[in-house]
Amino acid sequence: MNQYEKHVFDAIYGRRSVRNYVEGKEIERGKIVKLLKAGMAAPSACNIQPWEFIVVTDGDTVRRIRQSIERFGDYNAPMVMVVCSYPDFIPWEGDNGATDCSVAIENMLIAATAMDLGTVWIGGFDPGSIRQILDIPENVFPVGLFYVGYPAEQPEPRTQYLEEAVYWQKYDPEREHQPRPGNLLTFLGIGDPDGQAPEDSSPTSS
Ligand SMILES: Cc1cc2nc3c(=O)[nH]c(=O)nc-3n(C[C@H](O)[C@H](O)[C@H](O)COP(=O)(O)O)c2cc1C
After folding, report:
1. Which of 31, 43, 51, 107 is packed most tightly, with the most Cβ within 10 A?
2. Residue 49: which region, alpha, beta or left (left: phi > 0; alpha: psi -120 to 50)?
3. Which atom from ligand 1 is nearest to the alpha carbon of 203?
4. Is the CB of 124 inside a 6 Å radius of any atom of ligand 1?
């Protein structure tokens, strides 16, 4: 095993969505900067780095954000990180920088785990409200946000490895698809028999 393997897998498997945080425990500024450095260590197409980060620790602003995403994520964390794309320097069509921003988010979630912080990625936000609360202009796109705080719950480390999700060498169009174990929409009884969620019920639609 090389120097990274154990630590990296521990952090990857240990990163779980945390929806309950220690009240009143702020995040140290040094840790926030480390999170940002982890985000900005992510791969980026042509290294354009179309990402921008809004760190929200002001209690009133966090409260307004929580209220605006009440349905899919009113959690008691002291901090919200909003990741936006600024796609003006992307010269090709059909890319608004969301992929680059998403990999930066995942880097930050894993880095947070390594610093004993909890996070949960929220896709179910209303971009209009977030724009308004944070003064985000038209040419900048809020791609995703996540809460950060000290966890008051510790979901078990795990992978969701599933052989059914893997094809070796070639795709098998004959293979039957089932909703994945743990699919929250199945659990909630939402979605049609093909496992397709109605558009307006997806926690990731935004
Ligand atoms: C793109 C994306 C959007 C998500 N949106 C929400 C959300 O709006 N609210 C929420 O509570 N969790 C949200 N989650 C967290 C997922 O529910 C969670 O990752 C999933 O259930 C697996 O659990 P785990 O993160 O503990 O491994 C989101 C995750 C991703 C990747």
Report:
1. 51
2. left
3. 8
4. yes
CATH of domain 3-149: 3.40.109.10
User: Per-residue pLDDT for the chain (206 aa), expressed as one digit of tens each?
Assistant: 899 999 999 999 999 999 999 999 999 999 999 999 999 999 999 999 999 999 999 999 999 999 999 888 999 999 999 999 999 999 999 999 999 999 999 999 999 999 999 999 999 999 999 999 999 999 999 999 999 999 999 999 999 999 999 999 999 999 999 999 999 988 788 765 454 444 443 333 33
Q: In terms of DSSP H, where are the helices of the chain?
A: 5-14, 29-39, 59-68, 70-73, 98-114, 127-134, 184-187
Distance from residue 18's CA to the centre of ligand 1 (Å): 9
Amino acid at site 52:
E
> Would you say the CB of residue 125 lies under 6 angstroms from ligand 1?
no
Q: Is 151 in the pocket of ligand 1 (CB under 6 A)?
A: no
Beta pairing class for 51-56 and 118-122: unpaired
Give the residue extent of every domain in the chain. Answer: 3-149, 161-206
Q: Is 204 in the pocket of ligand 1 (CB under 6 A)?
A: yes
150 lines ligand 1 (CB under 6 A): no
